Amino acid sequence: MSHQSCMVRHFQYFTDLSESEIELLSTLEKSPEQLGSGEVLWREGERAREMAVLSHGWAYNSYMLEDGSRMILDIFMPGDVIGLREYASEKHQTTVEAITECTFCRFPHSHLEDVFEKSGRLTHTFFSISAIQQSMLVERMVNLGRRTAQGKLAHFLCEMRSRLSKTNDGSLEVFRLPLSQQMLADVMGLTPVHVSRVFSSLRDQSLVYRERHQISIPDIEKLKGFADFREDYLRLRKKDGFS
């Protein structure tokens, strides 16, 4: 899959795009930049003048707490737009770091404004994606504050699988999740040891099997029920009629 087609497929999940809109969208994926695992795209507190498209690989953003601990807020996959929530901010509110080898395409805010001016449908889609990102953040807060440790991990795995299904064919009974135990702990507010114990518990219940970074879910509907996972917050309705 080319680095351009990934973002287009991501957007086409929400709406049908014309050839001119596909071409306009592709202008945001020029000048690809390669970053290795652990390298930083931008840091919390730096001047926020740009956004980025993740064309290849996995990344995350994080916020450092006063005690030095890290909270991971978002996991980014190919096709994701990074920095939408900071569009009106003077400074970046989080640090963005590559999990795997990544290809990022930075673009200034003015390029997005050009897209808004030329396409109502793409404008709607960008706002839809921004709303979904906000909804995922709300679910993350619910996960941290209200779900059990098993519920947190089960819900997170359901969310990852659902997001992957947007740009992947097949049942996704098995999928790759390239997050370390520490990263998973920082997503869910647990310790790495606790994450390991929760995986063992889910395995004992035949809900989830993990082999290194490979996740196997034999019965996704059963896991969704266990996690009380309802994916409406990931699936905004299409809206037609834009030119």
From TrEMBL:
Gene3D superfamilies: Jelly Rolls, Winged helix-like DNA-binding domain superfamily/Winged helix DNA-binding domain. One of its GO terms (cellular component) is cytosol. GO terms for molecular function: DNA binding; DNA-binding transcription factor activity; kinase activity. CDD domains: CAP_ED (cd00038). InterPro entries: cNMP-bd_dom (IPR000595), cNMP-bd_dom_sf (IPR018490), Env_Response_Regulators (IPR050397), HTH_CRP (IPR012318), RmlC-like_jellyroll (IPR014710), WH-like_DNA-bd_sf (IPR036388), WH_DNA-bd_sf (IPR036390). Keywords: DNA-binding, Kinase, Transcription, Transcription regulation, Transferase. Residues 13-83 form the Cyclic nucleotide-binding domain. Residues 147-221 form the HTH crp-type domain. Pfam families: cNMP_binding, HTH_Crp_2. The keyword Transport does not apply. This is cAMP-binding domain of CRP or a regulatory subunit of cAMP-dependent protein kinases. It comes from Kushneria avicenniae.
